[in-house]
Structures are given as structure tokens and as C-alpha cells.
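Final report, closing paragraph on structural work. Over the funding period we assembled a curated collection of sequence-structure pairs, and we close with a single example.
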Amino acid sequence: MFTLSAFADEISADPQEQIDVLTRCGVGHIELRSIHKTNVLDLTDLQVNEFKALLDRHGFRLSAIGSPVGKIKIDQPFEPHLKRLERAIELCKVFDTPNIRVFSYYPPGDAADWNGVSESWQQELFKRLEDEARLAARAGVRLLHENEHRIYGDSPDRVSHLFQVLRNDAFQAVYDPANYVFCGYDPWEGWQKTKDVTAHFHIKDWIAGEKHGCLAGAGQGRIPEVIADAVARGYDGFATLEPHLLGGGPTGGVTGPELFPKAVAAFTAILDRAGAKYQ
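Its predicted structure, as stored:
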């Protein structure tokens, strides 16, 4: 069973407009990355409580806290960043979601990527992620690692390696096909190497060299084949729409209220063709 969700800040910065559009689309979950142009981890307690009340009034829930934890250079101090994860865990309790989206750090200094970075920095990365996973496990929540551009886990091989090293049920994978395309990797290879640890989908498609995403199935993300295989494997979890149809970058993307329903329709058509059950 696929449960549809959305990075609703791609629709609008206004949470009421987010909910209005998603209600018309038949989507009842949000992956909270930002509202009012403020990152989820920077919201005040008042903003959090007001948003929770809004969700409750409309019968919405969160699929995950869409945190930016792990989206800093590995040579930046860890303790202040760990406080960000502690805030995300607090928000899991407020919003009654067990999931926190995380990343596996940018390379140190001026390094363009992780190729050639010293083993000592890699060991620091694994130690940080292990500490984060232990903290999550104690709190009864789950970290979902996204394969993002330039972080350690941006390639199929490195994502696979992460999960060979970090064997903790509180640390699982997000599969994002467009990110593999954008980074120059084969998304089908990415799926084959990570599907056993994938617990969450981000749905956006991409054509190499383009500056924004495209409707699911219209790009090179191999989404129909991946979804068909996930259905055959009995996948049960969230599929979060993150279309980036008007643009995207390190802190989020833009699709808009007019295009977001088209993104939902394109993905549900893929689910229908795969014979998937979804809600």
C-alpha cells in the first residue's frame, strides 16, 4: 500500500493554501520541510502548535519531519547540529510521526565531492550517523536517509555501503530517482542496490541537463519500472511528491498550486498501471 504525501512547500509558503490544494488532490499527508518560508527546525513553538491545529482541523497528518540534518560539511561542528536532530525528535512527538528525513554530509573544505576524501573523514561521517541512529532508536523514531546531490550517499554504491556499515533499524533509506539522474547515476541501478533498505519514496522525475523536474514517468528516473517492482515486493509506506516542476535546489523546490495537481495525477496513473493500492 502506498500512502501519498507531499512536500507541500512546493505548492505555497502558506500552509492553508498547501492544505487546500492537497485536499483537492486527495492527498492527506504532508512531509514538513517549511511553512511561511521558515525551515521546520526553525519554527517557533507557537508556529508549530498553530500548524498542528490546522492539520487537525482538516484531518491531515505528517509522513515525516523533512529536516536538513546532515546537510552540512563534515568538518563543521557536530554538537550544534546534533541539537537540530534533537529538535526534530521533539517535533515527531508533537506531530505523531516516527520519521525524520536526514542526509549524510557534504565533503570537507573545498572538495567537490567525496571521491578522494580521506578515510578519516569517512570514519567521522559513519560515527556521526551511528550516533544519530542510536539517538533516534532510543527515542523510538526512524531516520530516513535521502540520496542527495554531493552528500556521501549520493551514488548507489555509497548508499549501499552506508547500509552495510550502519545496521540499525532506526536508519533506513529514502529512494529518490531524480536525484540519481541529476547526479549522473542510473536510477534503476540505484533501486537494485538499495531496495532492500528502502522504506520511503520521494517522487520526482528528471531529464539529465535540465534545470527543473518533470512529471513522473516523463523523465529518465525509471519510475514506472521501479514502482512496478516495489508493488511486486509488497511495498508498504509513503510516496512523497516532490516534483520540482518549476525549479529546485539544496533547500527545496517550486511547483506551484497550478502544477501540483498534475504531478499527483501523473504519479497516481503510474500506480494504477502497476496495480498498486494507494490512499
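The CA atoms of residues 138 and 250 lie 30 Å apart. The domain at 2-273 is CATH 3.20.20.150 (TIM Barrel). We thank the funder for supporting this effort.
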